[in-house]
Design goal:
The chain has helices spanning 11-22, 24-31, 59-63, 81-90, 100-116, 133-140, 155-167, 171-180, 189-192, 195-209, 228-237, 298-314, 351-358, 380-387; strands at residues 2-7, 35-41, 55-56, 68-73, 94-97, 121-122, 146-152, 211-212, 219-220, 240-250, 253-263, 276-283, 287-294, 325-328, 338-346, 361-364, 370-375, 378-379, 392-398. With 400 residues, it is an alpha/beta fold. The strands form three sheets. Strands 7, 9, 10, 11, 12, 13, 15, 16, 17, 18 and 19 form an eleven-stranded mixed beta sheet that branches. A six-stranded parallel beta sheet has the order 3-2-1-4-5-6, with helices on both faces. The termini are far apart.
Length: 400
Amino acid sequence: MVNVAILGYGTVGSGVYDVITRNNSHIGRRAGKDINVKYVLDLREFPGDPAEKILVHDFDTILNDDDVDIVVEVMGGVEPAHTFVKNALLRGKSVCTSNKEMVAKFGAELLEIAKEKNSNFVFEASVGGGIPIIRSINESLTVDHFDEISGILNGTTNYILTKMDKEGLAFDAVLKDAQDKGYAERNPEADIEGYDACRKIAILASLCYEKQVDFEDIYTEGITKISSEDFAYARKLGYSIKLLGTARKIDGKVYAMVAPFMLDEENPLHSVSGVFNAIKMHGDMLGNVMLYGKGAGKHATASAVVSDVIDCARNLGHNKIVYWSPEKRTLGDIDTFTTKFFVRVKGVVEKTALEEHFGGVTLVSGIENETAFITEEISEAAYKKAAENFDVINKIRISK
């Protein structure tokens, strides 16, 4: 029998408990061993809950119990989660987590400890909820060198952008709707400013390019400046607007960014709507591959966590190699990153005046008393220098 302890009994923690207990015989068959939840750790009481009899309030109860083989951390936040996970690994226990903040900051360190202790640190649910992207990178897509990984990594922002697109609503109205439906937090900053997606693309880039990518180094732009007028232009052009986390390797340099992009209909991410996530990768042998599914939610995330539990149960006493070095990867200067831009400026501006600063442009008809256009592929630095000469309403990058 394999004993599991769950740290945190919120939405995901209760989901993990529910999945293990409801599908116990199936999970045990897949793991090759019976899986038993021995402890649930939380500061709160849960009278009448099925987990009430195994509830504990002191992490040391779990840490000092040598019968606990696997610790599931679904508390969220960096501390005390990091301390608990590190100590569990140092005691030779395997750890499964959905905690993107902790993984992005300490993933390489925790993987090293797991390797030393012949245990495992796994974190499938930290990116994309139930989408098996991390296992795909580590186990299934091991032949290719990936020159790009891009994804819709946050269901809240994708829901907001989809609603704005389909119903022509303003950002503030859709944000309130998302909060009322429980898709957005009361404080939605981490989602709408792109910080959540930033941590996720940092994890994926660290795995794809095998060195630590610090999320603090990634250029991050949210969706708060996107308007219904931007969507009107996008529809005219046959584009959708999505918040993407993207990492690209160009001439040996890795560039990473989180920002809104316009996508044409040929891009497989174009039609991903609502709270769904999708991640597209391009390999030198495989070409394009995309994974799609629920990026959040109680049972979607719990499903990924419990899949990691099964993986750890199969590999007790055996460390599975993950290529993520603690050595820091210096990212390419974002000012040298090149793309096309869709730009809106105030007033009627002649094409020749725009081309004097931006180079070749394509004008887009639309709203009175403003000028909209698409630039040729230019660098971020060139765009910023050119934009200083105009009263810019908004700009959105266009994905290749």
